[in-house]
C-alpha cells in the first residue's frame, strides 16, 4: 500500500521496483569486476539460464471468489518464525558492492524480520553482523574447513552470537570455471574488506606465519586451501552435529538420492540449489530438481529452495512445488549496490509486496494453501 500511495503522490521509488530491471540498474553503479562476479555464472551460463527457463515453464492457475482479502504470509522454518517464507541466501564478500556490506544487509533484514544467512566468506565478522542484526533472525552458512579446530572455533562463535541454524554448503568444494572472473583476473576475496570471518578467527590466525593484515594474499590462499578439496564425505556429518546443537541444513542438493541420504543422516533440512548457476555449467534448472527431491524426502525434512527466484510468482511456484521457504540471492546484492541498507530494504519490500498481492490474486490466503494443483507445466 505504501509503495502504491507514494506513487499516487507522484513520488517515484529510489530505484526500480521491477525485479527484472535490478541487474541492469546495478551494472550502472558497479565497477566491471564486482558486477561480473555477482551477475556472472559458471561456464556458458547454461545453468543460470535453465534456472529462469524452469520458472517460465511452470504457470500459476489462479482461483476466484476465495475471499483472499486478508492474507497471512507468516510461517516457521527451521524453528525460526518468519513474516513470509523468504530468507536471504548467503553471499560472501559483500563489501565489494557497497562499503557497508553485510552490516547493511543485516540491518535491512532485521528491519523486516527476514532471516539472513551469513556466509563464511563474509567481509564482516560474525560478531559485528550479529550486532547489526540485533534481534533479527539469523543463520550461519559454513564453508566446511578441513581443519577441524578452525571449523569448531567458527561454529562456536556463530552459536554464541545467536545464529540459530547451520547451513552447510556442499556444492562449492572448489570454485567452478567462471570465465567472467577469469577474464578480468578478479578474485573478490582480495577486494572490499576481504574475508573477515576466518581472518578474525583466533584458531585460524594461529595457523598463519604472518597476520592477515600484514600478508592478506598468503592468508587468503591458506583459507582457500582449507575449504577446498574433495575429502569431505557423508560419514563426517556427525562432526558438525557434535559442534552444533541447532538445526543443520545441507545446501546444494539436487539429486533425490542425495536428499534421501540427507534424511538418513538426520539432517533438519536441505536447500535445493545450484548456487545460482555458478558451479556446474549444464546442470538442470533448480526448479526442475525440486519436485523429485520433495517426493524423495516425503516430508521427513524441511526443504528450502534457491537459484533463480526473482518475483512473487517465482516464490509461489517454488512453494507450490513443495518448498517450505525460498532464499533470495543476487537481487538483494543489486539493492545493496544501489543504496546500501535502504537498497536491500527496497528490494525485500518490493518482493514481499509482489508475493502478497500475487498470492491473494491467485486465490490464496496462506502459504499452507499452496500445492501442486495450483500450477501447470507448459
Ligand atoms: C553466492 N552464493 C553463495 N552461497 C554460499 O553458500 N556461500 C557463499 O558465500 C556464497 N556466495 C555467493 C556470492 C555471490 C556473488 C552470489 C551471486 C552467490 C550462492 C547463493 O547463496 C545462492 O545459492 C544463489 O545466489 C541463488 O541464486 P540467485 O537467487 O542468485 O539466482
**Relative strand content:** 5-15%
Major sheet attributes:
8 strands, parallel
Assign the structural class, choosing from mainly alpha, mainly beta, alpha/beta, alpha+beta, or little secondary structure: alpha/beta
Gap from first CA to last CA: 33 Å
Strand order of the biggest β-sheet: 4-11-10-9-8-7-6-5
Which ions, cofactors or small ligands are bound in this entry?
A: ligand FNR
Shape: globular
Number of strands: 12
The count of helical stretches stands at 16
Which whole number gives the mean pLDDT? 96
Radius of gyration: 20 Å
Order of helices and strands: HHHHEEEEHEHEHEHHHHHEHEHEHEHE
Uncertain spans: none
Key terms:
16 helices; alpha/beta; LMO_FMN; 12 strands; globular; 378 residues
Word description of this protein:
It is a single chain. The protein is an alpha/beta fold and 378 residues long. The chain has helices at residues 2-8, 22-29, 32-39, 46-57, 101-112, 126-133, 148-160, 179-183, 196-199, 202-206, 216-227, 237-243, 256-264, 286-297, 312-320, 330-361, and strands spanning 58-60, 75-77, 80-82, 86-88, 116-118, 138-142, 166-169, 248-253, 269-272, 302-305, 325-328, 375-377. It is globular. β9, α14 (286-297) and β10 form a beta-alpha-beta unit. Bound molecules: ligand FNR. Residues 37-38, 89-92, 119, 121, 141, 169, 251, 273, 275-276, 278, 306-309, 328-330 line the site of ligand FNR. Ligand FNR binds next to α3. Pfam families: FMN_dh.
What is the topological layout?
Blueprint: H1 2-8, H2 22-29, H3 32-39, H4 46-57, E1 58-60, E2 75-77, E3 80-82, E4 86-88, H5 101-112, E5 116-118, H6 126-133, E6 138-142, H7 148-160, E7 166-169, H8 179-183, H9 196-199, H10 202-206, H11 216-227, H12 237-243, E8 248-253, H13 256-264, E9 269-272, H14 286-297, E10 302-305, H15 312-320, E11 325-328, H16 330-361, E12 375-377
Parallel strand pairs: 4-11, 5-6, 6-7, 7-8, 8-9, 9-10, 10-11
Antiparallel strand pairs: 1-12, 2-3
The protein binds ligand FNR.
Ligand FNR binds next to helix 3.
Amino acid at each position: 500500500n505504501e509503495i502504491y500511495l507514494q506513487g499516487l503522490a507522484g513520488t517515484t521509488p529510489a530505484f526500480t521496483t521491477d525485479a527484472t530491471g535490478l541487474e541492469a540498474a546495478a551494472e550502472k553503479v558497479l565497477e566491471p569486476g564486482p558486477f561480473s562476479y555477482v551477475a556472472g555464472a559458471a561456464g556458458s551460463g547454461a545453468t543460470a539460464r535453465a534456472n529462469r527457463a524452469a520458472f517460465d515453464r511452470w504457470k500459476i492457475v489462479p482461483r476466484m471468489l476465495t475471499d483472499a482479502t486478508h492474507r497471512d504470509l507468516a510461517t516457521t522454518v527451521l524453528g525460526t518464525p518468519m513474516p513470509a517464507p523468504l530468507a536471504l541466501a548467503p553471499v560472501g564478500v559483500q563489501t565489494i558492492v557497497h562499503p557497508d556490506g553485510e552490516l547493511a544487509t543485516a540491518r535491512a533484514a532485521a528491519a523486516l524480520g527476514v532471516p539472513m544467512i551469513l556466509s563464511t566468506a563474509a567481509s564482516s565478522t560474525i560478531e559485528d553482523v550479529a550486532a547489526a542484526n540485533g534481534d533479527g533472525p539469523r543463520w550461519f552458512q559454513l564453508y566446511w574447513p578441513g581443519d577441524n579446530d578452525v571449523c569448531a572455533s567458527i561454529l562456536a562463535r556463530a552459536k554464541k552470537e545467536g545464529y540459530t541454524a547451520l547451513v552447510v554448503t556442499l556444492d562449492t568444494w572448489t570454485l567452478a570455471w567462471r570465465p567472467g572472473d577469469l577474464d578480468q583476473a578478479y578474485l573478490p576475496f582480495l577486494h572490499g574488506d576481504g574475508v573477515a570471518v576466518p581472518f578474525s578467527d583466533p584458531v585460524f590466525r594461529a595457523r598463519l606465519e604472518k597476520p592477515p593484515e600484514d600478508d592478506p594474499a598468503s592468508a587468503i590462499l591458506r583459507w582457500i586451501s582449507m575449504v577446498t578439496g574433495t575429502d569431505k564425505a557423508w560419514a563426517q556429518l556427525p562432526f558438525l552435529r557434535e559442534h552444533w546443537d541447532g538445526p543443520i541444513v545441507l545446501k546444494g542438493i539436487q539429486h533425490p538420492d542425495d536428499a534421501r541420504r540427507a534424511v538418513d543422516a538426520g539432517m533438519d533440512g536441505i536447500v535445493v540449489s545450484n548456487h545460482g548457476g555458478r558451479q556446474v555449467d549444464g546442470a538442470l534448472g533448480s526448479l526442475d530438481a525440486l519436485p523429485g527431491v520433495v517426493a524423495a524426502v516425503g516430508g521427513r525434512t524441511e526443504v528450502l529452495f534457491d537459484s533463480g527466484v526473482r518475483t512473487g510468482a517465482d516464490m509461489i511456484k517454488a512453494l507450490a512445488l513443495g518448498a517450505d521457504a525460498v532464499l533470495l540471492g543476487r537481487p538483494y546484492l543489486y539493492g545493496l549496490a544501489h543504496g546500501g541498507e535502504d537498497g536491500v530494504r527496497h528490494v525485500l519490500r518490493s518482493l514481499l509486496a509482489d508475493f502478497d498481492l500475487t498470492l491473494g490474486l491467485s486465490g490464496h490466503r496462506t502459504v499452507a494453501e499452496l500445492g501442486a494443483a495450483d500450477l501447470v507445466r507448459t
